[in-house]
Design a protein that fits this description.
The complex is a heterodimer.
Chain A (H helix, E strand, L loop, with lengths): L6 H6 L2 H19 L3 H26 L7 H19 L1 H6 L1 H27 L4 H19 L11 E2 L8 H24 L1 H11 L1 H6 L4 H27 L1 E2 L1 H4 L2 H14 L6 H18 L7 H15 L3 H8 L3 E2 L2 E2 H4 L2
Helix pairs in contact in A: 2-8, 3-8, 3-11, 3-13, 3-14, 4-6, 4-11, 6-11, 8-9, 8-11, 9-11, 13-14, 13-15, 13-16
Chain B lengths: L3 H32 L6 H19 L6 H25 L7 H28 L13 H5 L2 E4 L2 E4 H23 L1 H11 L1 H6 L4 H26 L9 H15 L4 H22 L2 H18 L9
Antiparallel strand pairs in B: 1-2
Helix pairs in contact in B: 1-6, 1-9, 1-10, 1-11, 2-3, 2-9, 2-10, 3-4, 3-9, 6-7, 6-9, 7-9, 10-11, 10-12, 11-12
Classes of the chains: A mainly alpha, B mainly alpha.
Chain lengths: 337, 307
């Protein structure tokens, strides 16, 4: 079945997608114009968190499957990138590190997609908390297995000591590219038939199944796309920091932050990861630069997450959508998605 | 080479460690089984119990062997507070808990877990009562315990005490749930809250009680961990014991306390034997979680539950 004529033009040029394009363009301009290294790093971190949260949003927000294991895919992306650069193509990497990093990232995305498809075939049969817990188990199993990866540094750690650090500009541009791709993918998934099927799965999986939505296929595709995008972001991050260790690359803290960002911003909304990610990052930046509140970001985020679940379970963007106001003659929920 | 002695040692330590894992997971199993609340802050409550034992001994001179009971008392109160502040709003008046409430409680408890986890680090950093790597003070009867011989394996007596206490916790919970009016109403609320209300019991009070007990048991379990873990404790144990407990509860079947204990022993034996044969602790942990994912996929209702 094909979409009605004019569907894509209308949907991709409605206010929310336009706002997303503006953010993507604005961040590119910022990356190109900001010369200050500190600000460039800040921009990269911001784009990374929004991108990761947007990737997670595809499976957790659209389909309603809470994945605590998303850091697995991010970590696999990082590992694939650095393993490729140090062991598989050291000559190429020394010559042209940026191209090697991109190749490694694509390799990582493929690896993550394959792992997601294989693992998803098993764990996507589970629902609710059982799925969430299976993904925690997946993370810990992979973390402990990766400690056995044979590397020269031992205990599965890789440090690209011999190589030049990437220039900040190159790393920032690559981060932006992955960020833009992630947001675009999230938008396309949301607006496509797949996205509508995922929404039906989230609201009532049995009903969706009985109405002919191929639930298992849709869930698997969502999981694979979501995993591949997280892996790309993990790959850039690993290239930027030039190191991956099992304890850091598969640290559940990354999953935790992605989840909290999505919950605060509004699960299943397009703007949620951007709003939540910006809020998270601003909070982190403010608190981590103040002497007495240094490590408080996560504690504050934890409290905010509890508060949001208790008092505003639909998140910031979700709450906005429920306001009964009209802007320019159109109800707000048509404008904000 | 693995000798007969090694196998006996793996067996003895596996059973002791496994019984403790089971006891630590009891509280999680109870809350999950009764209310479908996934207590993602479970690991943090376990760490709280471990630190509580140390602090009670250091500041109030409580014998570390009695520390788990201090934990139980504190945990009961804390559980009531958690119910009143967080859970009541989400599930207090809900009769049938659907996926939506399940996810809301999961995320709320998850927020609480981040909060507590970071709180330990900040407390340790600022020197409030605890240290990042803390050990149980050598005091009271705890300091005078020697070693015992079990199946030809020499074991620290304190570990045998942990084994006994774990068994006592399981038996006491079993008696409470099967022999007392409150215990029976806890099991009833899991089955049919409406029918329970019609028979004159307030489901809200029962849910509050179940939360208090579940968190009380988790904090008490933390005391066992402190006694067992001779290398000392730190907040990161939350990230060891929470996933482990989830694995055990899932394998045993949520709410099935004997299943939880049995799954704990299985888990303890798997880790202990993988370690004995490969010498790799990481591989043991990985095996445990592969077992978890496999058991979730193959028997999501629990390995030991009757269909």
């Amino acid at each position: 079945m094909v979409a009605a004529r004019g569907y894509w033009a209308r949907e991709l040029l409605s206010p929310t997608p336009l706002a997303l394009y503006a953010v993507i363009a604005g961040l590119l301009a910022a990356v190109l114009l900001v010369g200050d290294p500190f600000r460039l790093v800040a921009l990269m971190d911001l784009m990374m968190w929004i991108g990761l949260a947007a990737a997670l949003n595809i499976i957790m927000g659209f389909a309603g499957y809470v994945s605590f294991g998303h850091v697995v895919f991010m970590g696999l992306g990082g590992y694939a990138t650095l393993y490729f650069m140090e062991y598989l193509a050291p000559g190429f990497s020394a010559e042209n590190p940026a191209a090697a990093a991109v190749a490694g990232m694509l390799l990582g995305a493929g690896l993550a997609a394959a792992v997601a498809a294989a693992v998803g075939a098993a764990v996507l049969r589970l629902r609710g908390a059982f799925f969430a817990i299976a993904t925690i188990g997946l993370d810990l199993a992979v973390l402990n297995l990766m400690r056995m990866l044979p590397t020269e540094e031992g205990s599965g750690e890789i440090y690209l000591a011999g190589m030049r650090k990437p220039s900040l500009e190159a790393a920032a541009l690559l981060t932006w590219a992955v960020f833009a791709a992630t947001i675009a993918a999230m938008l396309l998934v949301r607006k496509s038939r797949l996205g509508m099927g995922l929404e039906a799965i989230r609201e009532d999986e049995d009903a969706a199944e009985s109405l002919g939505v191929p639930t298992f296929r849709y869930k698997t595709v969502a999981f694979v796309v979501s995993a591949a995008l997280a892996a790309l972001m993990g790959g850039v991050y690993a290239w930027r920091t030039m190191s991956v260790t099992p304890g850091e690359a598969f640290n559940l803290v990354y999953s935790i932050r992605m989840i909290v960002i999505d919950v605060i911003g509004g699960l299943g909304t397009l703007l949620g990861p951007l709003v939540g990610g910006a809020l998270y990052y601003l909070l982190d930046l403010t608190l981590s630069t103040s002497e007495s509140f240094k490590e408080l970001t996560d504690i504050v985020m934890g409290l905010i997450a509890v508060g949001v679940v208790l008092f505003m379970p639909e998140g910031i963007v979700g709450r906005l959508r429920r306001l009964r106001v009209k802007v320019g003659g159109r109800p707000l929920f048509r404008l904000v998605e | 080479m693995v000798t007969g002695g090694d196998v006996a040692a793996a067996l003895v330590y596996g059973v002791i460690q496994g019984a403790m894992y089971g006891a630590v997971a009891l509280g999680l199993s109870l809350i999950w089984g009764v209310m479908k609340v996934i207590n993602l802050a479970h690991g943090e409550f376990v760490v709280l119990g471990a630190y509580l034992l140390i602090v009670a001994s250091r500041l109030a001179g409580v014998d570390p062997l009695l520390g788990p009971f201090v934990g139980l008392a504190a945990g009961l109160l804390l559980g009531l507070a958690v119910y009143a502040v967080i859970l009541h709003r989400l599930i207090g008046r809900v009769e049938v808990i659907t996926l939506k409430e399940e996810m809301a409680t999961l995320l709320a408890m998850f927020g609480l877990s981040i909060f507590l986890y970071k709180l330990y680090f900040i407390a340790a950093d600022r020197g409030w009562l605890i240290k990042l790597f803390d050990t149980v003070p050598q005091a009271g009867l705890y300091a005078r315990l020697g070693r015992l011989e079990l199946l030809g394996v020499s074991v620290e007596a304190v570990k045998v005490y942990v084994l006994l206490l774990s068994a006592v916790m399981a038996v006491a919970m079993h008696l409470f749930l099967s022999r007392t009016r409150y215990g029976l109403s806890i099991r009833a609320v899991a089955q049919d809250a409406t029918a329970l209300a019609l028979s004159g019991v307030d489901p809200v009070r029962v849910k509050a009680l179940a939360t208090a007990l579940g968190i009380g048991l988790a904090v008490m379990g933390g005391g066992l961990v402190a006694l067992y873990q001779s290398t000392g404790i730190n907040p990161d144990l939350a990230h060891t014991y929470a996933p482990l407990s989830f694995a055990i509860v899932v394998m045993g079947g949520p709410g099935n306390l004997w299943g939880t204990m049995a799954a704990g022993v299985v888990m303890g034996l798997v880790m202990s034997f993988v370690y004995a044969f490969t010498g790799s602790l990481d591989l043991g942990v990985a095996a445990a979680f592969i077992l978890l994912v496999a058991s979730l996929v193959l028997r999501p209702e629990g390995l030991f539950s009757r269909r």
